[in-house]
What we know:
Elements: H1 3-28, E1 44-48, H2 53-65, E2 74-78, H3 83-100, H4 104-110, H5 113-118, E3 124-130, H6 140-146, E4 153-158, H7 166-173, E5 178-182, H8 195-207, E6 210-216, H9 239-256, E7 260-263, H10 276-287, E8 291-294, H11 295-304, E9 321-326, E10 330-334, E11 337-341, H12 350-359, E12 368-371, H13 378-391
Parallel strand pairs: 3-4, 3-12, 4-5, 5-6, 6-7, 8-9, 9-12
Antiparallel strand pairs: 1-2, 10-11
Helix pairs in contact: 1-3, 1-9, 2-3, 3-4, 9-10, 11-12
Amino acid sequence: MSLKRRQGKHYQARFIGEAISSEITGLIGFKLPYGSARRCQPSMLYFSVMCSATALAKLNEKLKAANIPPIGMQERISTASSSERSSLMALLRAALATARGTDSDTIGRMATFTERIARLPRLGVGISGEFEIAAKGIDAGWMKENYPDLVHFYEYGSDLERGLDDGVRRWAQAGRPTTYHFLDINLEERDDLDQNWLKRTKALATEINAAWLCGDAGRWHFGERERGHGMLMPPILCRESALETAESIRRIEAETGLACLPENPPSVIYLGDLHILDYFALVAETADCGVLLDCAHLAIFQQTRGLPPLTALDSYPLDRVVEMHVAGGAYRDVDGYRYIEDSHAPEPLPATWEILEYAVPRAKNLKAIVFECERNAPEECVEVFERLNTLFPVKAELGSTTRHPGALAT
């Protein structure tokens, strides 16, 4: 076999291995890294499915008592059929069920996206904000007091370096709904997810009783840059990157107990051969998670690729869209290169409205729409808030905000 063909088989094995690892991680609640390919054949790959020695020993004790084969064995996965992969998942469900003293059918049901998403509250239309935004833009609390029928929740964006400000603390202390938008983690780099970030981010979200976590699935820092610097680049739009992002989402949800919605980020240039909607469809399918569809960012992507605004939405899993973003933009031209700047101006572009109005009635699990307008004068944004509330009215029964509605059952 040529070197090129061997390399192709290696990456194929890696993709499948990472997908299996991500699925198992979400199922059993801890990371189960894929093993390297033992052999490559035209239609068959071999993997060693492994977990930590301590966890494996504990599970194997239960498995032995239940006469179930140990999960440390090599499992044969067919690239042409999902039947053997389904058998593997059934085996792991049985292992986990035995360890927890429940039945494997219950474990399978607990892992479904539909049941998890049903626990999330419908928040309606909200406003975004960042650290100390009231000093230079719209105070979410003031907006709520003066336009109570237009703003129903606050999406607070921050990082570990800045943390929470007094404004979001006051909002949460008043019992108003929030979501937490992280601005400092590279989702497509699994090594960026360290325990310090996971622990402290969960603490910030818990303090303001966030319904869920969300964030642009790009790169907020590069190399040794400090996370708080806030540089944002899009992910590489390829399958390998999507699988790594999915693994990160799985781990965040497992370790924080909160739903985590990856967001399509803005850019003037995108690298990779996938359409951005195909990229996030793969992330959502692999991680079995919800997504945040930023309609303004999608309009930017379609412009850079020379595509109509609704391209690829007909095949996108809109039933996984839990939240949408809307923001104003501005066309720019530099040396003949025309692009859309993500300016967060008070009026969204026509392409953004077209995407939003197509997606909302088809997104059956939509819980929230955020208008990112915090750097403008309040009176400039009222008309858009009114239009958004007409398109997506909040229901009266929001549910209690004294618990963490984004918590994932385990």
